[in-house]
Structure formats: C-alpha cells, structure tokens
Design goal:
Structural class: mainly alpha
Radius of gyration: 25 Å
Strand order of the largest sheet: 1-2-3
Oligomer: single chain
Distance between the termini: 40 Å
Order of helices and strands: HHHHHHHEEHE
Bound molecules: zinc ion
Strand content: 5-15%
Length: 295
Amino acid sequence: MSSCTCHHHHEAERGTRWVCLITLVTMATEILAGWLFGSMALMADGWHMAGHAGAMGVAWFAYVYMRTHRGDRRFVFGPGKINALAGFVSALGLGLVSVFMIVESAHRLVAPTSIAFTEAMVVAVLGLVVNIASAWLLRDREHASHDTDQNLRAAYLHVLADALTSVLAIAALAGGKFWGLTRLDPIMGVVGAVVVGKWAIALTRDTAAILLDMRAPEHVSATVRQRLESTGASIRDLALWYVGPQEMAASVCLAAPTAAPPETYTDIVRAVPEVAFVRVEVHNLPCPGEKDHDH
Ligand SMILES: [Zn+2]
Ligand SMILES: [Zn+2]
Ligand SMILES: [Zn+2]
C-alpha cells in the first residue's frame, strides 16, 4: 500500500495519517496477542499489518529525506533512491519475519501448543474492524466525479483484500474453538506468512532493480527515441533508469545531421515528464565503444 506518496492531496493525506496511526497500534496488539495467546493466524495478520506500517514509514522517511536533501550537490542524480534503499531494507526484515513465521507455524502444526481461542478471536475481530475502518477512511469519496487517484484506489482495494485474510484468521480460530480443529490456526499462520514472504520477495526484486540501475520499462525510452529521431538525429545509444520513485535519468549518444548545439537535444529529452536528469553526447562519428554494435 503506497498511499503515503500522495502528498499533494490534503484530504487523502489526512485520511492516510489516521490509517497509519490506527494500523500501528493494531499491528502491535495483534503480534503481541498472537504470541501470548498462541495463535499463529493472529500473529501473521499482525505482521502483515506491520508490513503496511513499514511501507508507510518508508514512504514518509523517503519523502522527508528527499525534501531535506533536494539540491544537495553530493548526490549526482539526486537523493531519490533513498526510497528504494529504505524499501530494500524493510523488505529484508519482512522476509526474515516470514521465514520465522513459517518455521514456527510448521513446528506448531507438528507439535500443537494450547491456544486461547476466545481472547485471540477478540483481537482478530478488532483487527478486522480496523481494516474496515481503514477502507472507510481511504474510500474514494469526492473523487468519483473528477480524477481517479490510482494510489488511493490501490490502497483501498488492498485494504479489502486484507479484510478477507482477517476473516479467514477469525474462521480458523472459530474452527478451533467450536469444532476442535486446532490445526487450522497454524495452517493460517503459514498462509499469512507466505503472503508476507511473496510480498517481501517482490519488494526486494523491485527495489534491487532500481538500486542496480536496471533499465526502466521501454515505453518512456520509446518516447525519447521518437522525439529525438523526429529531428533527423540517429540514436547510437539510449539508456533510461530510475533515480527516484517517479524520476528517471537519461543518457543519450546520438549522431546529428546538422551542427545543432547539444542543448537542443537535452531540452527535447528533458521535456519528457518522467526524465529528471539528462546527459546527451552528440557525435558525427560512432560513439566510443559503439562501433561493434548494430543500432
Ligand atoms: Zn503521506
Ligand atoms: Zn483529486
Ligand atoms: Zn496487505
């Protein structure tokens, strides 16, 4: 849930801040209660929420860091990658939690321990109520008519999915309390931990790609290529990569038919909204090291 990135929206921002606070309290309660009452399903639900609190914390920290370090000349491509770095670290933490939860749940599946079903259920219901309250706070009220806020919508849908996992955790506890199906709880513990684990893996992969300067998806470079080629220039090498959440750097090597100043091309590339940093080399000969390539 990346709802904390919508800082331009005051309404959304106020709603998000409340969700952050409520999530934090509920998550701590669920983890602690899960441990004390012996319920892995409840604990997994709590760690899932902790993942959201972590994501919101990362978004908030990155936002503050980027704002206070904007224009800091020591960062060649700006401080935007702090977002990926903080995300990568939190993903590692989330991955470790997931492994611990899977091992612990598997252990309890083999050697069941006693579970305080009633107490665990009370806390799990509280968790569900919080999920529904979050959905209500993030609901798309005045947005129905004008712009669709993608972040808000994604967050809303995710909260609904989370409510479903909370319902399953409650069902597992009810099964244990009323029908003696004590293994449902550690099974839900494994399910919850796998969800968190998959999330951690995806987050690790996404943030690592940004940290390692992997090329950004093709559509922006296609736009850059098209705009440059419309001037009659032929592109020898073009690379775009993320330097921040929505910012890219572009490195272009091109051969120009006329002796236009390099700034002409720099301005063309900079006009693409996603591009924040541009480096253009204009040659009338093949670029160094480019002779062997077939561009
Ligand atoms: Zn925020
Ligand atoms: Zn709006
Ligand atoms: Zn979730």
